Amino acid sequence: MTTDDDNTTEVAEFLLMGFSDSWEMQTVHAAIFLLVYLAALTGNLLIIMLTTLDVHLQTPMYFFLRNLSFLDFFYISVTVPKSIVSSLTHETSISFFGCALQAFFFMDLATTEVAILTVMSYDRYVAICQPLRYEVIINLRACVKMMAMSWLSGVICGLMHVTAIFSLPFCGPNRVHQFFCDIPQLLSLVDSKVIIIEIGIMVLGTSLVIICFVSITLSYMYIFSVIMRIPSKEGRSKTFSTCIPHLVVVTLFMISGSVAYVKPISNSHSVLDVLLSVFYTVVPPTLNPIIYSLRNKDMNMALKKLFVPSRERYK
């Protein structure tokens, strides 16, 4: 804390209050987060490597998947490592600048994730519902444009949130009841009379997330209607196994994030808020590699070619 001329204290650092004050629970939390983090990094790096090296995976679908894995690698790295270190060292402080930086990258990558998931659902819609026009609609130029717009939307959203909230005066409590610098918890630390702009940005952002979610849902409704007309039971099963896991992760990610960002701001600590945040910070980057690799025949074949000698593959 620093003191200005009017004898009011301005926040120079924040204290991240995680899951528990108990040393034993902090150790358990650190161990679980470390295992999950390593699994997420390994899975996403593996997908990036496979989709880059294997010539059979040089298609729009895997181009989008490579971007998603690249994003998820950094998305989980923005919040989890700091939380692990804080639990192990019991040093929960984060500087004002560090908190602003963490909030920016989190909002940037979270928004980009929403955009990429929406693009991927559109890609599957065109592939299944308009297969004869797929190569015309989802060409290389269109893929690059959609990815550029996704990443740009994330940067704009991150800048809007951080500019709005960190230009507000943080005077008084500096305890963030979360394991990272999340916007709703930061808003509870500023004067309620001066947060109108940030609340407006949150409402706008949540509205866009809802629009994306509705677009994804409509895409899958059309996809499922086409799947049900497939005469082959094997063909229906294969398509369902690709689409349903994607839809489950999207639903978990978007609904949990929207609930956290639209519920009333509270100054009280809630473990449920922290647990809810896990569903939009930790779960998607960890589950995406499992869904898109273990349940994908092409990815499994690429994995075998990478790690199993050719003579053993054909025995």
TrEMBL record:
Its main location: membrane. Keywords: Cell membrane, G-protein coupled receptor, Membrane, Olfaction, Receptor, Sensory transduction, Transducer, Transmembrane, Transmembrane helix. One of its GO terms (molecular function) is G protein-coupled receptor activity. The keyword Cell membrane applies. InterPro entries: GPCR_Rhodpsn, GPCR_Rhodpsn_7TM, Olfact_rcpt, Olfactory_GPCR. One of its GO terms (cellular component) is plasma membrane. It is a multi-pass membrane protein. Pfam families: 7tm_4. It is found in: Cell membrane. Residues 43-292 form the G-protein coupled receptors family 1 profile domain. The chain crosses the membrane at residues 28-50, 62-80, 100-122, 143-166, 194-223, 244-262, 274-294. Odorant receptor. Belongs to the G-protein coupled receptor 1 family. This is Olfactory receptor.
